[in-house]
Amino acid sequence: MFDDDDDDNIGDITPVNDIGARMDSVASPGETKLAADNAMPSGVKDPPVQGKGEESQQKHSWSTIQDRLRTSVVSIMINRPTAFEESCATFSYATGFVVDSEQGLIMSNRHVMGTGPSFHKAVFFGNQEVFLQPTYYDPVHDFAFFRYNPSELQDVEPKAIRLAPEKARSGLEFRIVGNTSNEKMSVHQGELSQLDRNPPVYDGSYSDFNTFYFQASSNSKGGSSGSPVVDIEGDAVAINCGAKHISSNVYLLPLERAAYALGYVKRGLVPPRGTLQTVFKHVNHTEIGRLGLSPDMACSEGVNIKETTGMLKIEKILPDGPASNVLSVGDILISVNSKPVPGFLELSETIDASVDKELGMRVFRKGQFYNHRVSVGNIYDITPSKLVRIGGTHLCNISYQQAVKWSAPIYGVTITHDSNGFIPHSSYGRCGIIYAANGKPTPNVDALMDILRDAGQDKPVVFKTKNHRDLRDEAVFVARHPPVAEPNIVYTRSPATGIWSIEPYSGMSATAGAGAGAGASGPRSFSPELEPEQPHGEMVAAVPKRADTFVSRRGSQMFVQAVSNSAVSIVACPITPADGQYSRISNGTGVIVDRRQGIVLCSTDVVKNPTCNVWITFAGLVCIEAKLAYTHPLYPISFLKYKPEQLFSNCGVDIGSYAVIDEIGIGSQTCQDGTSDTPLSVGTSVTVVLGAAGENIEIISSTVDGRRILSTKTCGACVNPRYFNTNVFFVSPEPSPASSKLGIVYSCDGSLCGIWVRLPHCIHSKNHPPFVGLDVSLVRSALAALQLDRSDVGSAHILDAEFAPVTLDTAHVFGAGNAHIKEVLRTTSAHERQMFKVDKTLHKREQTGSDSLEVGDVVLTIDGQLATRIGELACIYGRSSVALTVVRDMKEIPLAIETVPLSGISTRRVVCWAGMVMQEPHEAALEKANRVPSKVFMFRAVGGSPVYSKGHEWNVFITEIDDQPIKTLDDMVEVARRLKSSDAETFNTRVASNEAFSSGKMPGCDAKIHSVTLAGEDNVYSIRTNDHYFPAWQIRRGPLADDDWLWEAL
Predict the structure, then answer these.
(1) Could you tell me if 43 and 907 are in contact, meaning their C-beta atoms sit under 8 angstroms apart?
(2) What is the pLDDT of residue 895?
(3) Disulfide check for 537: which of 259, 262, 264, 775 has CB 3.0–4.6 Å away?
């Protein structure tokens, strides 16, 4: 559902582009360009024609071509709701043309229709829209037929364009009538030149084969895919498929096989299509001679060299296919069933007429002629018609197209899309090939579904996969179903309509979440009765300044054992890209800080997203589920919670006999447990221990080198508002640790004094993420509240400002008095002799009569205390307001400032309707917004969804639906339920039963949307919802740390 391949043009979520643009062809290496411009598609030379078309030109004129075809050529809007094969969920435009007005048949390209779940509209002349059924697509060639209901058209009587493949000839003047760049009725002229070129090789997921293509020079571009190529009489001689824009070449598909298929489609039948699972290439006679077949030898076999331009050579044979043990790559085809085969057309006609039969094939190989019998398979048997979604991952059979592209056998299941981490350890990601699961072969998706169903619920599965880019590259890994994910379903294509039905799949179902309030059982009996303190510590870094600090062998061993016993490995898989974060899998390390209650400390960079499925691995022996319990709103630390009882029940061995699982003792407010409350100061000698159990442990002897603020803002490439730590005091390590793992900071006497964490960073940034040290006292306050199961963990408040340090001299210039400067000099050490000014005000919130900070204010005191440490200004615990003394405009003024409360997990609910994924506005959105008109913030549009197709940007506030105010997510849920179609289930039942019906209209309704951008601009537009492919849902979580996420259909 969510894909970050283009982040932040998200995934699946990509900008609205014309589909023809992605079909730009690129010449394949060593591609033979044939010089015979007057060759017919069959490979037979066309004799010169004198005066051909003169009579037609007297009756017709190119100036009237638009008027004649105006009602016949349509714009097609394509919505792909899910990934399939190698395509992703998206929306685009293309072209089609009516070939039967009585039955409502429209011809376009195969790559326009797509081979997976999709829904389409055709826009006729006068902007009349009709819904389309994706009736038939050719399994190989680039043509397809849609069906519409003629009765849905009003005041438009489209005229069918006749398919006339026999009229194609070299030098024929033509017009491409389409919708280039979605501009209706764009007309491009040209002349047919090369008629027997091999199919172009596109840089996308689809390329045609085993057919001739026409080539011509024209300027058609994206959006014109599927356009008719018409002569002066208005007959179609070819269909536009792709282009190479750098040379203004267009590639046109001849229509012989399309006319053949259309005859069956008109009768409601599926055209017979055979396959040898073999790719042929047309080679000119000169090259044939170089391959060993001399002209005399060819003529002796009945090849008419004078009337043909070349012969067919076998280019590729799929392993385990009908011809794999019979024919060989490089074979030159002489005849089939004793008949000469001069080109692709004759070969296709013979194969399609021989499904489930044998062909007699005579080939030339290594100087000899051979006769072989080859069985013809049914191409529809290897055409995927089922797609299963398990844990957010989409799986289907390997297709003929993919097998040809990868030179792979048609065996196995391909990973078409992975959004929620069902296969988190797959290094191949999309399009990896699964060929075994739990030790059993998976030749197809049905076999895999049976294995997963037998495996039971919530059990890990061992997959064996191959890299589609290199079939010799294999991997074996364990996959676990996410605790929270979209429902597992099976899509099945209906042959009658081309629409895909949706049925539930019971295999590997996730255990139902506990729901809101599940953890509201009060404090646990063994939790210490602690109240959170009000720390004034701050973030520092232990900088490896020199390596000569002595650490005894006994001390080093103690540090290593302590970290190793408490360290865990973490994998986090987002459910949604909430809070502006990415939907990519992340991993890292953490340390156990309370093994009785199951609390783990980690960097926020590991679990960035509040809507995450999390797994943690202990001692490399057992992996169990965890949940994000708390993320510090200011500092880059997060706490995870797991169920300690699962630690032993989920493991097949007695881990207590092999590993010690302990905790890092930071839970006490005193130093009796070996921790130190003294903030790390410049010059302090420390030891940083980094690593995890089963991995190399890194020990660095360091000295705290300094304290200064780092600006950790996003780079300019980020589009989504994403929170980054502000007011962070740290220093970069020189040299930095070699590992990128969480570490523990010990003082020279062996006491634990800090945590080493990595700051969240922007993936677009070219700089490495910085590491910072955190005073242990800051960690302890949040941990104490977690141990008490409090919903207001940490009670953190902030000032609405970002601060920057200034020297005392600069502060004096701003207006700080001499008495204050002297007080700072008297009470602080040399490295703390600084003050702070407001560099930026952050949030746009309504004030309730209190004062406010302004950019340039220099803070002198906070609640009567000197403000010389950033920790005193950055994070304020338990106070709704503070008293500040600031210097503004050269004057000292007192201010009463309201603080802003921040939640450890601000996002506890996500709602999706019509592809609009919404939450309450998070901190980064509030900071970036000019105004906040509602509490419904759309942070993402699902690829291929109704709202995605409108092309409007996300990161907007939704204020109205159908002129009704939307203020909260509850309002949005009420709208989703009210506008839900009552026909959705009936429609799906009809599709599943393969019932034929006339219209492609899907259950849904028209809705009017009013949104406001972060810049404060209003947008009003309409959408058509689709309750079949895009049903509404929500996930929500209760207020306590133990509450689970719960998925709910609306």
Answers:
(1) no
(2) 92
(3) 775
CA angle 550, 555, 558 (to 5 degrees): 150
CA-atom Rg of the chain in angstroms = 34
CATH T-level topology, domain 909-1049: Pdz3 Domain (2.30.42)
- Count Cα atoms within 13 angstroms, Cβ side, for 780: 30
Q: Which class for 506: exposed (0-12), middle (13-18), buried (19 or more C-beta within 10 A)?
A: exposed
Helix 256-266 with 344-352: angle, nearest 10 deg: 30
Closest listed residue to residue 356, CA positions, set 337, 376, 326, 373:
376
Distance, CA of 208 to CA of 109 (rounded, Å): 11
* CB contact at 8 A, 781 and 535: yes
Q: How far apart are CA 1047 and CA 485, in angstroms?
A: 7
At residue 537, the pLDDT reads 40
b/e per residue, 799-837, with b = 16+ CB within 10 A?
bbbbbebbebeebbebbbeeebbeebeeeeeeeeebbbb
Provide the token pair at 813. Answer: 């210039």
Amino acid 25: pLDDT:
34
pLDDT in tens, 244-291: 877 788 999 999 999 999 999 999 999 999 999 999 999 999 999 999
Give the H/E segment covering residue 346: helix 344-352
**What CATH architecture does domain 539-794 belong to?**
Beta Barrel (2.40)
Closest CA to 979 of 966, 962, 991: 962
Let me know: does 202 contact 26? Beta carbons within 8 Å: yes
Handedness of CA 722, 725, 727, 730 (dihedral sign): negative
Distance between CA atoms of residues 693 and 217, nearest Å: 64
Run means of pLDDT, 10 residues per run, the chain, 1050 residues:
47 33 36 32 45 52 84 94 87 95 96 94 92 96 96 91 95 92 86 92 86 89 90 95 84 96 95 97 95 92 90 96 95 95 95 96 95 96 94 91 94 82 60 90 95 80 89 86 89 95 82 36 30 38 34 54 80 88 81 88 86 87 88 84 80 54 58 50 77 70 70 58 69 55 76 77 59 75 73 68 88 91 86 85 61 90 87 77 92 89 81 95 86 94 91 88 96 96 93 89 94 93 95 91 88
pLDDT value of residue 104: 95
CATH of 277-375, picked from 2.60.40.2700, 2.30.42.10, 2.60.40.1230, 3.30.565.10, is 2.30.42.10
Q: What is the CB-side half-sphere exposure of residue 219 using CA atoms within 13 A?
A: 4
Query: Considering the entire predicted model, what is its pTM?
Result: 0.85
- Do residues 692 and 741 lie in contact, with contact meaning Cβ atoms separated by under 8 Å? yes
Q: Is 400 helix (H, G, I), strand (E, B) or coil?
A: helix
Assign domain 19-23+36-266 one CATH number from 2.170.190.11, 2.40.10.120, 3.40.50.300, 3.40.190.10.
2.40.10.120
Nearest to 335 by CA among 309, 298, 368, 306: 298
CA distance 222 to 186: 11
- pLDDT value of position 520: 33
pLDDT tens column, 632-647: 877 888 899 998 888 7
Residue 511 CB coordination number (10 Å): 12
Cβ proximity of 545 and 701 under 8 Å? no
Question: What is the CA 997 to chain-centroid distance, rounded?
Answer: 34
Residues 6+ apart with CB under 8 A from 297: 364
Q: For the chain, what's the residue count?
A: 1050
Which tokens in the block code for residue 465?
């996969």
Q: How far apart are CA 1000 and CA 149, in angstroms?
A: 8
Give strand pairing partners of 542: 704
Contact 178, 220 (CB under 8 A): yes
From the list 94, 108, 73, 107, the residue with the least C-alpha distance to 17 is 94
Distance, C-alpha 359 to centroid of its chain: 45
What residues form DSSP beta bridges with 393?
390, 418
